[in-house]
Structure formats: C-alpha cells, structure tokens
Amino acid sequence: MKVIKSDRHLLNGVLKNIHFDAVLDTCSYEEPDVKDILHELESYDDYIMISSSAVYPETLPQPFWENQPVGPNQIWGGYGMGKIAAEKYLMAHNPNAYILRPPYLYGPMNNVYREAFVFDCAEAGRKFYVPKDGGMHLQFFHVEDLCILMEKILLTHPKQHIFNVGNEEIVTINKYVELCYQVVGADLEKVYVTNHDNQRDYFSFYDYDYTLDITEMKKLLPVQKDLLEGLKESYGWYKEHRDEVNKRGYIQFIDNNF
C-alpha cells in the first residue's frame, strides 16, 4: 500500500501514472474540490462522492427522495449549495460516478460534537436540556454502514447513481438522548426548553425535523446497525479520543442562561 499525503488543490502531478480501482471522495464540499481532483486523476475505475441531504430544500415534502429537485436550504445555507455544485460538476464530467446523500453520520472517529456532547452531560450527571417537547426527528447513519454500502456499490455497480442513505429507524430527540444516557449508564432527568428560540445555542442539532426515503439504499443494505449498538461504539471510541472532538460551548451556555 502506498500513502499519498497532499493538498487536493496542490497535487502537482503526484497522481500521474497511478491507476486507482476506486476513488472514495469523503471531503468534497464545493465544485473546486471535485474539479481539482478530477484534473489530476489520470486513471481510475469508480468514483463515489459523499454528499449530503442538505441539498434538498426544506420546503419540499418529506421524506426527501432522490428524484426531487435540489436547491437552497435555509437551514444549511452555503454548505448545501456547495454540495450541490460539487455533485453537478462530478456528474457532468463522470456520469458513471455515484453520489451518496447521508443525514447525520455518527460512530467512531466522529469529531463533530453531537453524541459526544450528550455523553459529556451524562458522565457529569447533568440534567439534559431538550428543545421544546423533544419530539423533533433525527435520522442517523453509522460510518461502518456507509463503508459497507460503498463496498456493495463497487461490487454490484447498480443502475441508480444517486442514493439517499441512512437508518430505516428514525428517532426523536427524546429517544436519542435516552439512548446516549443508557450507553453511559447514567440516570436521565430532562428539562424541556420552551422559551429560547435558537436551540443550537445549547443543543447539537438545528431545529429541523426531516427524513430521507432510503428505499433504493435498502436494496443494497437492507439491515443497518442498531442505533444503540452504534452509540456504544461511539462512546467506546470517545473515551479514548476526547481531544479529537471539536467541542462547542453548549454546557457553558446552559450554565449561564438556564
């Protein structure tokens, strides 16, 4: 195995004279990210890009499905538009590429302060401040399932080239927090916040209830990792890698305002 470490925008020919069986692009956020890598790739068979469900306008009926139009999403803003531009450039230059649109990814090596935030609260024996009535829905996808799905795509080359991906099970905030506290082994006392407009001040997710239709994905991956088991894996990793998570000031905000 050969490791090539370089800035994808400053490759300067390091990919020349190399054939890749597959390109698994996990970090294209804008058109130049795809454009620059395609310009440098001399020979490859398959290309899979990890996009995002943020490409769907929040005004569309749900669950979102792959053939709905993409466009501006007021929740995700420039992030979603950047993903749209990256997708369009890739498919225009390689119609045989595959695009995966996940909801919230989780699992070991997740450096986003989501489940880790709830774990921190549980470990400290804190009350958990839940937005509104806790009924907002969240859809997740474990990173291992994402890897398994990519392998299945490379092996089978399905006719469909754009897939929504995610767990069939969709949970509320209430259920998600309960599972995280269960994983830690802590008692949970909830405080429902009804008098603060911006839940991102004290909680890891936007006030955005949405679901994806994963009918096509299930043809390749009919069973996904159980959320409780996936959160156990997340917590096991987090206990050994706390410094690798980009923490935010949710707890400080709670202490100062509630």
Structural key phrases:
two-stranded parallel sheet; 8 helices; alpha/beta; 34% helix; 258 residues
Description:
- The chain is an alpha/beta fold and 258 residues long.
- 34% of the residues lie in helices and 16% in strands.
- It is built from eight helices and ten strands.
- The chain has a four-stranded parallel β-sheet.
- α3 (115-123) crosses α5 (173-184) and α5 crosses α7.
- It is globular.
- The chain starts with 18 loop residues before the first strand and ends with a helix.
- The model has no long low-confidence stretch (mean pLDDT 97).
Provide a brief overview of the structure:
By secondary structure, the chain is of the alpha/beta class.
Count helical runs: 8
> Care to count the β-strands?
10
Largest sheet: 4 strands, parallel
How would you describe the shape? globular
Structural class: alpha/beta
Q: List low-pLDDT spans.
A: none
Helix share, percent? 25-40%
**Terminal CA distance:** 53 Å
For the CA atoms, what is the radius of gyration?
Answer: 20 Å
Mean pLDDT equals 97
Q: Secondary-structure map with pairings?
A:
Elements: E1 19-25, H1 31-40, E2 43-50, H2 78-93, E3 98-101, E4 104-106, H3 115-123, E5 128-131, E6 137-138, E7 140-142, H4 143-156, E8 162-164, E9 171-172, H5 173-184, E10 190-193, H6 215-220, H7 227-240, H8 250-257
Parallel strand pairs: 1-2, 2-3, 3-8, 4-7, 5-10
Antiparallel strand pairs: 6-9
